[in-house]
Amino acid sequence: MDPWPRVAWVLLLTLISDWLDTALSRDFTVKDIIYLHTSTTPYPGSFKCFTCEEAADNYDCNRWAPDVYCPHETRYCYTHHTMSPAGDSVSVTKRCVALEACLSTGCTEAGHEGYRVCTSCCEGNICNLPVPKNESTAIFSTVTPLNSTCSLTQVWMPRFTIIFIMLYSYI
């Protein structure tokens, strides 16, 4: 038999065994650690917002927004949208903010030139995708109620009172 087919089979089997070793081994490399680092959250409950400073429009802002987590002291995504008298975008600013920055959302006239400024806030991961354009979209939307700090007595005391009255009336 000719030696070339044997050599071809040995080379093919060697190539397949090398391929299996690389396909089955999964040791972390520096590239893997860098890739995974961006997907891990820096703290529990962390979130991301679109972030930009005075972008030309919403598309430019969202397209070039850095993919980073918001600082721990922030809780909301803020959007500031300035429009020309014709309704075209002049500038868009988006960032992570604390509650104080979200207390005055809505639309106002900016100067005598007819420019309009609308601000909105939202709570949630990347919730500031659209820009506010009018009063119905320039709002402060939350997932959790702002007065979520109710105590146990505020919740259970009325229930205990009703139960106590019902039990007392049967005695």
From TrEMBL:
CDD domains the UniProt entry points to: TFP_LU_ECD_LYPD6
Gene Ontology BP annotations: positive regulation of canonical Wnt signaling pathway
Cellular component, GO annotation: plasma membrane; side of membrane
Membrane topology label: Lipid-anchor; GPI-anchor
InterPro entries cross-referenced by the UniProt entry: LYPD6-like, Snake_toxin-like_sf
Subcellular location: Cell membrane
Endpoints of the signal sequence: 1-25
One of the record's GO molecular function terms: acetylcholine receptor inhibitor activity
Primary location: membrane
Keywords: Cell membrane, Disulfide bond, Glycoprotein, GPI-anchor, Lipoprotein, Membrane, Signal
A Pfam entry, by short name: UPAR_LY6_2
Name listed for the protein in its UniProt record: Ly6/PLAUR domain-containing protein 6
Organism ancestry: Eukaryota, Metazoa, Chordata, Craniata, Vertebrata
Gene of this entry: LYPD6
